[in-house]
Amino acid sequence: MMGHTRSVLLLVLALLYIGLDALGVTWADTFLGTLQFLGLLAIGIPHGALDVWTHRHRSPGRSSLLYIIAYLIAIAAILATWWNFPRAGMLAFLLLSAWHFGQADFERWEIPQGELAWGTVALGMILTWHVEEVNPIIGQMGISSEVQAGLIQAQEALCFISTAGLISCGIIALRMKHWSWGLAIALIGLTPWIPVLLSFGLYFIGQHSASGWHHLRHRLGMSSQSLWMRALPFTTGALALIGIGMWMLGNPEALQSDATIGAFFMLLGCISIPHIFESHWFLMSTTKR
C-alpha cells in the first residue's frame, strides 16, 4: 500500500473538493488551486526544466549551450507556427501531450504498450466533459467559433467515447491486477465533477509530473533536492518566458481571464513540445530492454 500513497491522497483530495463544492464551500477552488500552484512550482515546471541535464546524461560530451540555443529556437518556431496555424498547432499539442502523458505513466508502471491510448483517454475525459469551459480558452488561442460550436454539438458523443475508453482501461487494469493504473483511472473518473483547470492540474501535477520526477530521480541517480537545485535556473527562465508571454498575449489586468489562461496554455505548450521529445529520448536511452 505504501507505493500507492500518493495516488490515494490524490483521490482523497479530489473527493474532498467534490464534497466541499457540493456543500457550497466558497474557498474550495482557492484551496485546491493553491495546492496545485505550489505543485507546479515544486515539480510541474522543474521536471521539464531538467531537460539540459537529461541531454547531458544521454549525450555526454555534447555542448549544453548549443542545446539550450536550439531549444529556445524550437520554442520560438513552435509559437510562430501555432500563432499562424492555430488548429494544426492545437491538434499537434494535444496528440503529443496524450502520447507524452501515457508514456510517462506506462514507463513507471512497466506496461509495455498502449501509452497513446491511455494518454488520449485521460486527456479526453478532462477536456470533453468541460467543453463549455474549454471553448472560451481555446477561442483566445485562435480556434474559430465554428470549431467551438462543433465541439458543443459533438460533446455528448465525445463524452461517451472518452467514458467508454476509461471503462475499457479499468477492465484491463482489473484483469492485470494493476492497482497503480486503477487508482489513476479512478482519479480521471472524478474529473467530470471538477472544473477543467483543476482537473487538468490534478492529473498534470499529481500524476504526470510525479511520474516524470520519479523517472528523473531513479535514472539520473539524484535526490529530489539535487534535481530541484539543478532545475532552478531553468525553472526561473521558464517562468520568466511564460510570464512575459502572458503579459504580452493575455490580459495582465485579469489573471483569471480567458485571454490570460489561453496565453498561459499556449506558452506552456510551446515550451512543452521540445520537452516531450527530450523526455522520450531520455526514457528510451535509459530503459532496460
Report on the architecture of this protein:
- α4 (51-58) runs parallel beside α13 (258-286) and α5 (64-84) packs across α13.
- The protein starts with a helix and ends with a helix.
- Helix content is 82%, strand content 0%.
- The mean pLDDT is 90.
- It has helices at residues 5-22, 28-44, 46-49, 51-58, 64-84, 86-109, 115-128, 131-139, 145-176, 179-189, 196-220, 224-249, 258-286.
Please outline what is shown here.
The protein has helices at residues 5-22, 28-44, 46-49, 51-58, 64-84, 86-109, 115-128, 131-139, 145-176, 179-189, 196-220, 224-249, 258-286. It is mainly alpha-helical.
User: Which percent range fits the helix content?
Assistant: over 70%
State the helix count: 13
- Structural class by SSE content: mainly alpha
Low-pLDDT ranges: none
Strand content: under 5%
**Overall number of structural domains:** 1
- Please describe the biggest sheet, giving its number of strands, its sense, and whether it closes into a barrel: none
Q: Helices and strands, in N-to-C order?
A: HHHHHHHHHHHHH
Q: Give the N-to-C terminal Cα separation.
A: 28 Å
Give the overall shape: globular
